[in-house]
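HOLO CASE FILE
Compound: manganese (II) ion
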Amino acid sequence: MTELNVKPLTDRIRAYNPAIDDDLLSRAFSFAEKAHSGQVRASGEPYFTHPIEVAHILADMHVDPATIITALLHDVVEDTEVSLESIRSQFTDEIARLVDGVTKLTRIEMQSDNRQAENFRKLVLAMSEDIRVLLVKLADRTHNMRTIDHIAKPEKRERIAQETLMIFAPLAERIGMTHFQHELEDRAFAVLNHQMRNSILQRLEFLAEQSEDLVSRICDEMGVTLFEADIESSVSGRRKSPYSIWQKMQREKVEMEELSDIMAFRVIVPEVSDCYRALGILHQSYPMVMGRFKDYISTPKRNGYQSLHTGIIGPNKKKIEVQIRTPEMHEVAERGVAAHWNYNTDGKPVNATEHSKLKWLNDLVNILENTVSPDEFLEHTQMEMYADQVFCFTPKGSLIPLPKGATAVDFAYAVHSDVGNSCIGVKINGRIRQLATLLKNGDQIEVLRSSTATPNPEWLDFCKTGRAKAQIRRFMRAERQQEFAEVGRALVLKAFRAADKTFDEKDLLPVLAHYDTGSDIELFALVGEGQVDARDVLTLIHPELKKTLKPDAKTSSKSTQQSTTPSLNIKGLTPGMAVHHGRCCSPLPGERIIGIVTHGKGITVHRVDCQNLEKFSTMPELWLDIEWEGDSPNIVSARLEAVIANERGSLATVTTLISEHGGNITNIQLVTRTLDFFTFVTDVEVKDVRHLTAIVAAMQSSPFIESVERAKS
Ligand code: MN
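Model generated. Tokens follow.
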């Protein structure tokens, strides 16, 4: 039973850090005790026993005082009424920041889905900006696994164990905390595969009985062999853990009966040079197992681990695994990043001063960044990748990895190209935001879609991923081809009418073959682009017209065409599309317009009275009668209800914001007014839904606005 008393903890810390601030520690202790008072764990014990145990686990790793205090406070913000602010005011910014980090990690809903596991591990690493956050989280998980039997529901136990095995144990390994790693693995294994673990344990028991004292005999013999070669050493041996044996059985597809090397031995020698000498002696004295030698001294693992590994047929003809290392390497192997904490290079303890903390962090960065061996290059690049990535959730909890700097549009396209193409807006963590918003780790993104929406070429200015850019461009190309095809079709119809012929699409087949095009649309697009002359299409179908056609065309005039050809509706003009405004006359929706076909560029729209049309008077084949789609441009009115702060100038600021974003306010009405806020409804004319969403997003980013939404009329 855990004592609800700070003394055992203080004693444990003082043993490695005599400079511990008793007063601060007991304040944190009482603070957390009070916050959790009345809460109980599944075991029936007071809830506060849990943070105390987590603090003890970390004290065993000799961590700094801020980490211990964070451990005591780690569940306070999540599970009690206490706010982060009061932690900040009672303690330090540093502690508040660490507690906040742990709270954020606790809030992530983990998914024990194999395909997502690596993404979750990266997310946790990315969110643990300070490695101490991760240490507290791992200790928290370790204590939860120690007490998992108290959880009644088997499904819940399994979910937690699964998550432990796939997310937390690998993270512990990644930062070199093998203590945590092995305990987490073994406890999760016991929950998930109880029977298998038991039978492995039984087998180990049986083998131990058969070869009584084998471990100590092998240790003695190796020790003597090294001593005779003048190498001072300490040799220890252990059975491998049930989980690592099980993994090996899976990996090498062998039955337990065939497993031989279930023992691992460790040789600790004073100096690095002794490691290599000891290796030489062992290889001379015993047969070496091929393919087992690894030199992690010259090329340490990324988590800082150093040792020589080899396999030999040792004493008693047993196949065994041997690790050779110095005491310093052993320290790192056992305590991982925490080993760098309070020991300087002489191996003497130092106080956790600001300097040593920085050194420790630098060490960590070095560990994470220095990779020499080609073997670890792959792992290294994964690490780099994670530093450059953000991880965001779909509303259903799937995790989408994106490069740093990615926006909501990138997210939409990463989910699916259809989602991107139909995207009209986005909610980030429940609030409407601009599509260009930069995403942060852990953001939950809901893409708002409309079946009639199309990608906006302006997205290309801010989206980050190649996937989004390629999809937007592809859509634009298809759209452009569609527009060219519409233009081309009108040109072909016009040519047929001018020659007094009826056009029938069935007649096009030989023409398609002639131009090697696969479809009507493709052919019409070539005509629209000016690659194929509409009159050539006519004469391919009616060869007899070849001689008479050209003079006819020359004599036809604009006015006669207008009376004979159907006009072509054009949509809203989008940059990069096949239809352009003439810069000379800037035609407006509603005005009479004429299109001029330009080779390779689609059509340019001019006002019917534009001076520049003169230039084309001798080329009537380029003229196209067009009109705007609908009588007036596509303006819709939307009613918004907004709550804004009752402050001087707030309403003016908000209305300015709306007009700056192109919205036209036609009506505004105050609904209610209180001391702090007032509510108003406003009718705003916008181009389309996307335009409205952009305005709402802009309003929500204003500090004056409390809320804004479409009014339910
Ligand atoms: Mn906890």
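CASE NOTES: The chain has six domains: 2-192, 208-330, 359-473, 475-549, 555-628, 636-710. The pocket of manganese (II) ion is lined by residues 50, 74-75, 140 (CB under 6 Å).
CLOSED: yes
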